[in-house]
Amino acid sequence: MERTLSLRRKIILALGVLAALALVLATGGVLVEKWRDAHAPERVDVNVEDADLSRVMAEISRTVRRPIVVEEGIDEKVTIFLRQIPWRDAVNVIAKLTKCEFEERNGVILISRPRCAMVIEFHDANVRTVLELLAAYDGRRVVFDADVAGTCSVSVQGDKTCWTAFQEVCHECGLRARREEGVVHVASGR
After folding, report:
1. Per residue in 37-65, pLDDT tens?
2. Of 73, 94, 106, 172, which has the fewest CB atoms closer than 10 Å, so is most exposed?
């Protein structure tokens, strides 16, 4: 004798299966994260000379099985020797060495330039002084071409990197800037 399920029982059974599936999917990400943490090395060795920051962070990322992203436009070089250091400490030390900071957002480590969370206004200020100040906030040296001169009146506001503020001032004053190994070269845009 064959027994058939009523429509009501079939619906209840289907809802139960869906609820179980939803529970598996909801906890699956947590379980994967815990498994990754348990199997990723806690300590790393970093031995690099004049290497790109992005490449160094990509190697640490592969080793610890964690996503580490370097903000676009950061072209710092790294020379460092670290042996059996906790990976988060290694990332922190390297970020500080390259005048960057790191934060974790939704499981992703982001390496970025510090933000200029300030308002700076200049009225008829020497353009060289303004640019030297912004470069100093960014931890850089500035080299000016001989024809860079004059005054500027600008307002730097908002949550932006010092480099972005530097570029805005250059644009306002008709100047060009390029970064090269921790030094910013400024030339007349004319």
Report:
1. 555 568 899 999 999 999 999 999 999 98
2. 106
